[in-house]
Amino acid sequence: MSKDLKLNFLIVEPEENFVTRGIPSRKIANKDHTYEIFDNVPIWVYDVDKIITSIEKERAFMSDSLGMLTPGKKVSLKEWDPKDTKNIKNKEEIRQETDQLKERFAELQSKLFTEKKQAVLFVFQGMDCSGKDGVIKQVFSNLNPAGVTVHSFKSPTTEELSHDFLWRAHSVTPGRGYIAAFNRSYYEDVLITRVHGQVSDKQAKRNIKHIKHFEQLLLDSGVKVVKIFLHISKQFQLEKLIDRIEKPRKNWKLDPSDLQERKFWKQYTQYYEEVLELSATKQAPWYVVPSDNRWYRDYTVLRIAVQTLEEMKLSDPDPRPELKALLPELYKERDKK
Description:
The protein is α/β, with parallel strands linked by helices. It has helices at residues 48-65, 95-115, 132-140, 158-161, 167-170, 192-195, 201-220, 234-246, 257-262, 265-279, 294-311, 327-335; strands at 6-12, 25-29, 34-42, 119-126, 148-152, 179-183, 223-231, 286-290. α2 (95-115) runs parallel beside α11 and α3 (132-140) crosses α11.
């Protein structure tokens, strides 16, 4: 096996006794374990079995460190610290990686747009002040705007209320080649409506089943669905609400109803936990992203976005050999100059 070959990185347990020949490593922790990561590792450092083991650990670690929920597992948001940054001290520490992720995201979006075979829907949910607008702006700002749509779900209109609750969402899902970001979504119809008694618990759970069928329809049509819950603390929300009132330039961000909705924090938390548990699937996963630190929120969502598109196995469009027949005429025109 060639010693010139390298793996992008390997993840191992710190106590495992591997000969790393002085290769620098870094430690990253999730809620259960601490792992040691070796970047750009020559292939000769590990045998094949250890490489396979590392790849399996990498997949498990990446999913867990990004906050992806296990389908069918009971969800308690108390298990996630909204302030958690996975031992990353500040945004300066990840600035270079963030820039690289943005470049890669743009490259993958270009392939998605030109391939025109698949699409991606990013659904953003969270309490008021969780930063849905902000994260969409930060994460998607480097993309070609011609291939991105953003839709904010407000109170339904009279026309929308005359249809089933998924009607208004279906019309703005992305076509093949496009990325769509939903700021709030059809999930509001099993959250705020339930908090305020507009639907019964029985109807809400029936609607969650409809949502799962809807998302499966999108998946069957080539639309990857990724759902992200921006997790903030009640104290963080309080500080944000005060800030929006104290600073005139931010007054526009405050809806007086936000103060009323805050009183239902406990109910929203309970219903979010049920929604996350009942609607998380392997094909349409939910991610819980700690969001009290905006820079970490943006970084994590960017990682989720890049990982999502990487897994879609995007390719450049098929070549069109027949176009070469047009070259002689173009060459002739060019040579006259």
